[in-house]
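Quick one:
INPUT:
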């Protein structure tokens, strides 16, 4: 049997030979001493791309978000965020456990945004009884909202509401380059109204590891101490920063291909009957199952060599990425059609 078409996540993407070659020759040093020239270069490039003064390289998007929360808040503070945000759904309450902050989660709109009136109403001033809200966290693209690309204007309206009341704003931009491609604007424009922004190198950009957290000089200096505290101070990691530099140079403009592939996948699935896919704006296809069970379909897909993940009781997620070609999408649709044919529902 031919190999499985892995659509579980864009994190399954593998480093290319050219990326590995760049990694092999990267100059390195002890980055905790500030000696690694490749890490320094990646941080400089990342800051530039995001339009911020400085940046710090971290092992994962989860650590980037946690470092951001720790750096923007003090224990006893409150952060406001969407109830579908990665920080709220998938980061094991790290903000509460390590930052001592509580989260006030507001319902995300279908397009990944928050209602500015609800944000304004949620903000609390610290007093004898109440914790103070000090941070608003936004996400773009919005994973659980089907990879929605939140418009620049929407982000800036929400950031203004927060800033007027003296809150900082962190943007979880794990897939911000997908948002930039979908919206047709540079990533820095999306992040402009936010005090900090993080993005993943290990997803659509095809790196084996890494995220970058960007912000002001002062913010990043303090973030470095929090990264060290969490065990994220790394040594000769120019070897992985080189993959990030390679990706920023070579793997950003191609993201539009992943989006076209996701649209083709959704269009094909819609024809088959049991599935109601979203109309993907980026590389995430969310499929509501209208006939049969989610587990049954995940198994049936897997038997035909197509891998997805559960994303709700009757919902599957399929993600396109750098290792998935248009031919793979056609192949996947053929296999899924075979699965439908073999399944009596
Ligand atoms: C994947 C993801 C993260 C976390 O990144 P990891 O590198 O997996 O820890 C954070 N936010 C969003 C929106 C993500 O999709």
């Amino acid at each position: 049997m031919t190999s499985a078409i892995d659509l579980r996540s864009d994190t399954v993407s593998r480093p290319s030979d050219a990326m590995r070659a760049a990694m092999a020759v990267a100059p390195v040093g002890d980055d905790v001493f500030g000696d690694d020239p490749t890490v320094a270069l990646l941080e400089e490039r990342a800051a530039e791309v995001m339009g911020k003064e400085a940046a710090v390289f971290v092992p994962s998007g989860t650590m980037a978000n946690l470092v951001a929360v720790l750096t923007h808040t003090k224990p006893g503070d409150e952060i406001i965020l969407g109830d579908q945000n990665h920080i709220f759904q998938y980061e094991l309450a790290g903000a509460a456990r390590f930052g001592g902050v509580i989260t006030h989660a507001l319902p995300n709109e279908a397009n990944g945004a928050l209602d500015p009136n609800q944000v304004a109403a949620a903000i609390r001033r610290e007093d004898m009884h109440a914790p103070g809200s000090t941070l608003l966290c936004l996400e773009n693209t919005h994973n659980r909202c089907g990879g929605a690309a939140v418009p620049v204007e929407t982000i800036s309206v929400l950031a203004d509401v927060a800033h007027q009341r003296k809150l900082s704003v962190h943007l979880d931009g794990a897939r911000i380059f997908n948002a930039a491609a979908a919206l047709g604007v540079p990533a820095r424009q999306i992040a402009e109204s936010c005090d900090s922004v993080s993005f993943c190198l290990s997803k659509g950009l095809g790196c084996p590891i890494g995220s970058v957290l960007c912000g002001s000089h002062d913010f990043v200096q303090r973030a470095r101490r929090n990264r060290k505290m969490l065990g994220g101070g790394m040594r000769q990691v120019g070897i992985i920063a080189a993959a990030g530099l390679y990706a920023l140079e070579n793997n950003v403009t191609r993201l539009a291909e992943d989006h076209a592939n996701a649209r083709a996948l959704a269009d094909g699935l819609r024809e088959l009957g049991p599935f109601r896919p979203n109309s993907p704006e980026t590389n995430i296809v969310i499929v509501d199952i209208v006939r049969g069970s989610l587990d049954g379909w995940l198994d049936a897909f897997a038997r035909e060599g197509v891998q997805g993940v559960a994303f709700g009781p009757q919902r599957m997620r399929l993600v396109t990425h750098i290792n998935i070609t248009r031919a793979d999408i056609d192949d996947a649709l053929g296999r899924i059609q075979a699965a439908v044919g073999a399944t009596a529902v």
